[in-house]
User: Fold these one by one.
Assistant:
Number 1:
Amino acid sequence: MIARVQTWWTILRICLEERLVYRGDFALGTLMRFLPIVTQIFLWTAIFAAAGSGKIEGYSREDIIAYYLLTMLARAFSSMPGLASGIARQVREGEIKKFLIQPIDLVGFMLLARIAHKVVYYAVAAGPFALVYYLCRSYFPGWPAPDVFAAFLLSLALAFAVGFFMEMTLGMISFWFLEVSSLLFVYMLFTFFFSGHMFPLEILPDPWRTIVDFLPFKYLAYFPAAVFLGKIEGDAMLFGLAVQACWALFFIVACRVFMHRGFHRYSGYGG
Amino acid sequence: MSHHPSYLGVFLTFARNSLIRDMTFRANFIIESISSVSWMIMNLGFYTLVYRKTTNIVDWDKYEFFVFIATTMIVNSLVQTFFMPNAQELSELVRTGGLDFALLKPIDTQFLVSLRRVNWSSLGNFVVAILLLAYALPRIDGWTLSIWHVLLYPLYIVLGVLILYSVMITLAATSIWLGRNQSLYDFWFYLTNFSRYPMEIYEGAWGTPLRQVFTFVIPILVVINVPARLLAKPLSSEFAWLGAFAFVATVLCLAVSRWVFKQALWSYRSASS
């Protein structure tokens, strides 16, 4: 048991070291990622100036900007750049074989690597995030109640789980199709549009508004932000958290099933 | 016997070679075209949703704004087709020392590294943009096609592409100094992000200085705004100066980027050979 913990701890440390090599690039990239928010502020100011009523689907101009800032935070938890494509590459080039031979669990290894990735990211990005949030503090309605804030933190953690295991499941599909880059692109489009990263999902007309409720995407960005802003509260909030947890569980099981089926199918190409 | 290479001939050869290369991987070509088109369609979907909630953004109504988006697509697809892959490759050439070969060839180095590869699949957006124009233009109230539209719109598109090219090659040239510039594409994306909106939205204590910087210092706001306004809006004397300024800005941008590129080349040290 202790040996096992030690193994995982070593893996986590190696991954941390690996990520820290590129810390300069990281910090610069994080700051630049906030530039589009500047144009979003101007764009929505212009939209609200013309809309007249001062509110769009219950969102004021300030709400929308706070919403964008919060979805950026949620995406910092749920987006997994390079995860599925990395697995696809390993399958294609035969590198995945090492997980068949070594006594290391593929999903566990990937999870640790990703946690290390995220921890380094938060350490480097905390500064830029704090700065931008401080500068934009007037757009926020203030700190939410402690229980809402706790729910917000929980939804961020679950957003990480949903994002990670959903993309792992997608990566496992590469056991069946060697080239999955177009599939991944479609996935990226869907997450961008239906996660609420582009706009608050309330803006969608029916039937789309109902359809997104049945998809896992909205838990990647929209849901945490809406909880923080008090757009979803009370029982609806608890129900949402439960559904989010179910999606996480669903993909945890799905990626395992796909992995085992995939390993059975797999024939190692390459050396 | 002429000592000058035929630039047009060389460019056409590049274009043909690139097309042959693209056609070798046809499935990939089709997928790339579809991806870039679907990205823009999603963007269009977003603005369709926005226009369900509002009648206009600043003084752009729905169909006028569609013309604006189509113009953005045209300019960006041209930049991506002709310049983007080359600018990205420049930093790779610097890192691997491959730039040596470009320097040795008896042809202008900037020409060679800027136009070597043509990414034909990016023209998919160009076609969609033309369709979007054909859809949106007749739906603008009181719009009629005039000879000025036909003459000046393509001209201003070219000017816009040249301005963006200048910014891009300047950014790419910095990779000669820095040795490597991986975030070039990111930086490029975030910078041109400002040019995708009507310049009137940059208003107020922060907006006005921002608009002036991106009009007069790095004139990326001119790129889309001038051709789009020319096509979608009635001509007004107010914007005549902007139309004239676009010419000056393009010439200055090209001159500055040429200068920066040459300066950067002087400090190039071959990485290997």
Number 2:
Amino acid sequence: MKARLLAALLWLASVLLSTTSKAETLHYPLLPVRSDAPRLLIHGALDPPLIAPVLEDFHRRHPHIDLSYRNLTTLEIHRAFLSDGGETPPDVVMSSAMPWQYQLANHGYAQPLESQEAREWPAWAHWRHELFGITFEPVVIVYRKELAKRFGAVNDHGELLRLLERERDELRGRVVTYDPARSGAGYTYAVEEARLSPRYWALVAALGGVEADLVGTTGEMLDGLAKGRYLIGYNLLGSYAQAFSREHPELEVVVPDDYALVMQRLVFLSRSAGNPAPGQRFLDYLLSEAGQRVIGEHTPLGTVHPALEGPGSAQALRERLGEALRPIRLGPGLLATLDRLKREALLARWELEFRRGATSPRPHSLHPRPRSHHDAP
Amino acid sequence: MSVRNSLYWRLLAWLLLPLLGLAALMLWQAYLGARDTADRAFDRLLEAASLAIAEQVKWQDNRLWLDLPPAALEMLATDAEERVFYALYATGDEFVTGNARLPALEGGGTALRFADVGWQDQTLRLGVREARLEDWDQQERFEVRVAHTREGREALAFSLFQGSLARVALLALLATGVLVLAIRFALAPLTRLRRAIRARDPRTLAPLELALPRELAELRETLNELLSRMRRVRANQERFIGDASHQLRTPLAGLSARAELALRQNDPDAWRDALQAMRTTSASAAHLAVQLLSLTRLNNPEATPELEPLDLTRVARRATRHALSACQRAGIDLGVETPESAVIVSGIDWQLEEALANLIDNARRYGSQGRDDPCVTVRVNASPPALEVEDNGPGIPAHLRLMVLRPFFRGQAPGEGSGLGLAIVDGIARSHGARLSLEEAYSGHGLRAIIRFPEAHA
């Protein structure tokens, strides 16, 4: 059990495009600076190619700050923050693992931010002025365009459920989604969806019915979809999927219009930050219109700032989808997600529903293949 | 108008200070009440959340099992976005699950206990629910502990307290207003009294007739007593002036009659007789005027010269020496008896000499009547210090002895005296703090005038 949890946490951290090259640390300025320059250490779970435009722009505005960015997995971030080891504690912590970030803030490890930007930040995207959601990333369905030609488009969960039940044989092994037991993100979405809709369990059963492939990252899912191994992927991280689909026009990205979970990357200023001023600057920058514009224009991440209305921004998505958007609520409910027994209970239920779907009496499901091994189609 | 000097401000200060103290007490009470109310209201959240969690606790795989409902935690966070903590403990304080190791709460017997606890530099409100599984075969006890930070409670307490603050402030304002009016109303009779006194004719000494509350009525009565004493004093003064002018008019009328009579004659001898008679009369009139003047001076309470220590025996001897020739002419035996040592009192020597001279003069005039061997004795007593002048004349009946001290009262025997002598002596005695009394002579015949001085303290 413990090993599985650990593995899940490790996988959760790597919600990244697998193809990007990995440099562990970014440093600005590139040349050595005076030793008394204010230091800022950021721990983040965002690959350097994604975060670099933001850091560069920040550095251009505040060249005197000695800025270091360490790219870690979300689990490493969590563990590095809580360990008392000799490493320099970070000033700013940025991670997409919402429950973990929330737990740290709830325990009082975050420092409140009293700036104008922090006060004006939308209420749904911050908690206590300590924890801020700086991105807006819906969870999406991605399918190959040929699927729509054969079976019709999939625009919401209801259609997906019907499609899975109707075309059970055609889709066997050609559907992919997160393994909630291995992926923290997948587990978080499962908890939220189970709360949102009782029909979620029917969907899990239908996924079990088509013997859906269960993987650990969005990257794996996109990769499989691009290679044609999968026809349809469920619960992919929208920001990555959007970027990926630009290079792979055969893929269609759908934000479900009945309900769509929205994930946010949460950032906070550590209470133990020795010199909070550069950290405050950085957070103010992330919350400012300028910083958000860089996020919106140079990264695939959606923006939150109410003044920005470009594609992928919270404003644009809200206009299009309205009430269907369900940002994961920044509240104590996230703590339940992290509860050990809760996790066991939910995973047990999930497994049960998934197996029930897989073993239900349908002619073609008498010999289910082991779900973790798939041959390429 | 300082607080010390104004009755109004004094009253206001003494009434307002306790009032403000009371208001402060009420505010403190209100603060505690608001806190208590907020705690009770928010404790219902802890109660509901712990119940919602407790309901999800079950026995599974031979251990306590909890399917934590997220809503139970959500309900612990209000608009104030409290930090939320929960934990499930099995018997023996054994941690089962939760996001914080929350402390146990001792005591109680009640299934639900609340307390403020310190936890990692934060103050948490902790609610502990004791429960047990209600299975057929499993009745394991467990504790659900939920806690959250106090921001929401403090915000509610503050807003409740703000309400009380406004009410108490309004009340205090009203009370102050009423107090100011009440004090003004209560002090109104004082103003009336002041106006009544100010509006009076300065010459009238009539009693004040003014309806006043009891406390001020006492003041009015005291004032009226003073006024009536002043009326008596003024009556005395008027009688004195009347008497004095009458006394002066008589010799002046005599003078003018005598002059008229003399003018009708041509005889120079008759003129001379008349002039001589007029000189005698005018001398006595002048003496009268001098005496009136000194009496007026003595009666003036604002002109009291400094008293100095002096020896009574010397005063007695000098006065006797001055009177000696006049007495010898009248054939009176004047003697002085003094103790060996000096008798020291504080006084003014010339006034005491004058008093003795007056007493000797009186004794000479009236005490020698109808005696072949008139004799006057000036005596000094050492303890208590006193001056005595004794004669062996007819004396004064006891019932007249007080009356003769009044100006112009001259006993039964008319003579050439002014009637002021004893009054002057009395005045001098008073200004020395001494008492003049008239008593019977030691021999039983004659009058003894005594000036008794207070016992010297020095």
Number 3:
Amino acid sequence: MKKRILILLLALMTVTLNYAQNGSRVPVTITGSVINKAKEPLSGVTVTIKDQPGLGTASDNKGNYTIKASKYQWLVFAMLGYEKQEVLIKDDLKIDVILKEADHRAMDEVIITALGPQKKATVTGAVTTVDLSQLKTPTSSITNALAGNVAGVMAMQSSGQPGSNMSEFWIRGISTFGAGTSALILVDGFERSLNEISIEDIESFSILKDASTTAIYGSRGANGVVLITTKKGKTDRVSINGKHETSYNTRTFTPRYVDGHTYASLMNESRITRNEEPFYTPEELFLIKNRLDPDLYPDINWMDMFLKDGAFTQRSSLNFDGGGSLARYFVSGSYINEGGMYETDENLKNYNTNANYKRWNYRANIDMNLTKSTLLRVGISGSLGKQNLPGGTYDEIWASLMGQNPISIPIKYSDGRVASRGGAEKQNPWVLITQQGYIENWENKLQTNVTLEQNLDVLTKGLRFVGRFGYDINNNNNIRRMKWPEGWMAERLRNSDGDLVLKRTITEQLLTQRSNATGDRFETMQGELHYNKRIKDHSLGGVIQYTQEKRVNTSNYGEDIMQGIERRNQRLAGRFTYGYQSRYFFDFNFGYNGSENFAKGHQFDLFPAVSAAWNIAEEKFIKEQLTWMNMFKIRYSFGKVGNDAMPVRFPYLASFSTDENLGYNWGDIESKNLYPGLTYSRIASNSITWEIATKHDLGLDFSFFNDKFGGQLDYFHEQRDGIYMERKYIPFVVGLQGQDPRANVGSTLSKGFDGQMRFTQKINQLSLTARGTMTYSKNKILEADDQFSNYPYTTLSGFRVNQNKGLIALGLFKDYEDIRSSATQSFGRTAPGDIKYKDINGDGKIDDTDIVPIGATRYPNLIYGFGISANYKSFDASVHFQGAGKSSFFINGYTVYPFSQGDWGNILTDVVESNRWILGVNEDVNAQYPRLSYGGSANNYRASTYWLRESSYLRLKTLDIGYAIPNGFTKRVGVKSARLYAMGTNLLTFSKFKLWDPEMNSSNGQAYPLAKTITLGLTINL
Amino acid sequence: MKKCRKNFIHLSIAVIFGILFYSCKEKDGASETTADAPAGPVLFNDFAPKKGAVRTRLYIEGSNFGNDVNKIKVFIGEQELKVVGSNGKQIYCMIPRYTSSGKVKVVISRSSGESVEHIFPDEFQYAKSTAVGTLAGNVDENGNSSIIDGNFDEARFAYPAYITYEPESNALFVTELDRAVRRVDLETKTVSTLITNGQAGFTKMQTTTLSANTDTLFLTDDNQNLTARTKVAIAYSLRSENYRRVHPYLYDPAAYSCAPHPIHNNMFYNGYAGIAIKKAVFDPFLNELGPKELFKIGGNTNNSSLIFFHPTGNYAYIVSYGCIYKSLYDWTTRELQPPIIFAGSPTAKGDVDAIGTSARIERAYQGVFVKNPNYAGQADEYDFYFCDQYNQSIRTLAPTGVVSTFAGKGSPTPDGSKSGYIDGDPRKEARFADPTGIAYDEQRKIFYIAERNNKRIRTISIE
């Protein structure tokens, strides 16, 4: 007891002592000037007092500053592009400082890897560090800035709908046809989504591509890893950064459709050309053309009517950071409001039916030095995303906008009744967009993490412990409030009094509601021991990491016990590094993973990887002879990683059900006395496990001419084995009752390269940087669940994952003689002007055995980007082009095949403007559209090279111009620096395919178009 | 230098605001009629065509008409036409029924309140044409209807399926299948209900047939009996009693139709199981009419059939679904002979105009014999007009066996449907919805057609 009192007293004394010390400090006013080496005065240099909170001050445009401080405090002079300098205040009250320009050297660049930051020069694996200044997107998701900017990433955006407009992306392409192809995304070491992250919060962004960097993630790393760390507070004066952007979004491509008269004429052509009677008499065509009957022949351009010219997006963010050596903080908040493109009803006051997305983000990262050797980091972040949508679903709206022809129905009949062809996608687009209620999806994410770093130099020098705990919750809620008015459709002609005869096509729906919610919880616990040691020229490092994770989602699983069980992972990982004289490096990484999803004996696996690097530039003879060579490092890595994405929970457990057909019939006089038998409803296998990737990576990092020219190139070779798939061709004699068992049987091989290059040049005050990146990947299925075939081209193996397959078209039939002399096409009757196919197997018959792999895949296999940025005085500008290639897709559906579904399906202007086969007028066998047919032609409308389109494109992805408002001006309003900028996104797109945006890879164009955006923004730094 | 920078900032701000307030293009929804008043003086050039029948589209050419059809009135003589649309340079209107020839007058009211009137010097010549029209019947907004009596504007039908024309009083008897028999008085243009289910022991009324001398109306009833002869199968009422009283004619299981021989007046009727065709014969023991089964048609199917005697009494057509049988009348035994398949097929249904058994019918219902002047002097001078319910058309069967389509299935629509409610040219425009009843006024040359789905009585006549 006495002891405790003593301690308390001691503690009190220390506090008072401290206080007394502070009080004894002499307040002084320090003045001085800040100049650079060239003796030019520096304006805007922040001058702060070390470890004292507050804003500090900044030098004026003559480089002078004044600050109040106390003696024996440290003054800190900091400015971007210069090395920080600290000066102790002694007796001299005038302190002049010469700041040294920061030395930027490729050698010293730091790369964030799985187990912490590492100097670029010592890295042996393939890592892309993303230049954050190049990630520019006016949308709510940074995934849209990845394509063409980040070496090793293939990305594709398939919708422009606010809140759903993120890009899908794959690291080094898709290399499996198993369940999961997406990368593992880690934010501050925890598995989190990339879409909600505000770009201003990101400190570092790296992509881990090869086995050596991902092996420690073991069974989860095969699809690559994205590592993001968020910003932390710095020991500096408080800095406040604000940003506001206003974007005006239009569309890159809007599919264009013909007017009513052209539509009716084409419809008649489609009838006449197949010897059927036309639908519209010349008199009716006259009425359509002159728009004399807006009820029966309305002539509506649906796309134009219901899509606005453009919509606005507002985005703001504000963050603060600061702190002293005891604690530092970074606090940020951001807001985005993406406006929808639909032309909605302005009169609706109580709710909105447009497709809007609003998101609020916040983040607080606080670092506390608990003791001299203990650092505690606490991070809290969260987001609330609200997506508002019209009451008609996305598919219904787009199917309706492109399905309704210009003359079938008006929006409303002149007596005020709502026109409709029925429900769902047959509904009037006006009803779907404005009259059918609305859908609200909201997503709430809350992420908490605590990290404890303990320096254990006490035990042995270079030893450090890091412990992490993270706890994330996600909630998704969906509510749909739906109603619609009764719909009517007019008879084909008016009655004898000239009045419309209306038939009701859909009865009124009063307000109904549907709702759904799901949520999950994710917990991670991690402990790491780091050890670093340098013995003369030898540097040694080792990290051992233990992780356990569990994820559970208990919503909507009802009585399903298997789904209610937490999904758990366990992992022991480690890394050992050895370096010699910053020339030779050798790494060994491993992950020893466990998952409870598999049977005992298959739950754990070891994923090792080795890698080595040789920095030739550090060799003596190079250093002496080739002084321009700053870095020339060759790397090679080899190892194993896994992919445990699995569509089935507990694949080793079978499930059973009863079946009357397999029962026992103890027939009695009055009753059948039937006892149903038990049967498998899912066949299990004990030996199911994860798929394994064996990866090789040969890389080169280089930097020449004083780091003016640098880059990174990687060649990769990756084989996936044990891809989990259904076995569909097990003979019936095995007795599996038509149940397809699953097994790890698939195998693929993918090869490719990725790289990036950078060139900087300074001409007087103009500095230029040119950049380029490229990622190419080609894969091949080695083994898949194929049945025996006489034709090797019908198997999956030997071709790409997701390979397009179809018939080979030889153009159109010239005449009946041509049809007679060609192979018989077994898809219905053919006439001149119909598509002629190639008889691949030579059996004189065109059928499904003539389907061969054609083109590439729907997803891009090549992504590249290049651009240039320039800085001149206060101005900066940059241009960035992005392209994709080696991909193709089939176009189909009622918008592409004219009249394939009768009068459902609008006709693209391309049908009229392009070279179309017309009986007696244009019988070109190479025409772009075959002979029209009403109600579809089974022969023409098949997947074939005729309808295969290249989706390669090149686009001016971003163009931006910025102007840094001069300090003299900003200072007067109390602002440290401000930049005004304008940015254009997707301004130009070059592609052979022009019907809709080729990046969307949509087969029928029925998707919310991608945005072409002009953004104006202002950043303010206090 | 400083000033220059300031200007630049001002300029940038101006640009920002310029883009922020970039105004969207105005779009006018087709739902709202743009009531823009004609700007200049209204000019009238001409109208076309100069001649036409009912439903002819009439165009008036000129300029500055305005778009608001409510402000435009067009007359032919005194008859006002329906103005459907106007695009400023053309006015589109339709010639209604019962129009007579006359001068075309256009009246356009201007926003100022005054109106412009123009009478074209040329006269519009109204031409007569055969057209499908609507006699009576109506439905509410939801397409529903019920048995409502009254004049032709008010009256409604619930399920008109069968129709008989009575020439003496110029009236129609319309059987609302399973419900009632209605009387349509063509003189007073009123509809009344003659008898409904439940009255006089009727269970499900099927058809009405007039005797050859047109003074007796026979009514058949599906009395739901399969074997027992306890209920009335055929009843009759007399013109002399203004059809108000119903007398039992024959007790038997359910009957669907009956046909008295036009000369001998023997009654033939059909029953259910196996579609037995029966003859009513007098039973002296019971002192009443009793059944005599003659033959069965269509094997053992339980489809119903309908019997129609040729006006000469030489033969009868027995209509059952996709098939029309021909049964000759034996003048000595005074009985119908077992029939032959004359047109269509009892198994294969469809919609093909062809001869005899190669023709395809979907669901033949009521038919009527109509004298064809082209056949004058031939053995058989009559065509048989019948309703093909599911093919939504009125078809004819010539004495030679040729089946052809007479009316319906007009106005082809892109959706491929055949049914609908459209008047006009019988083949090119008109559409029916489940027509099953047909009758013919020989004197005025008007067909009356009962449609189950449109719930209307339609006409085919020269207007």
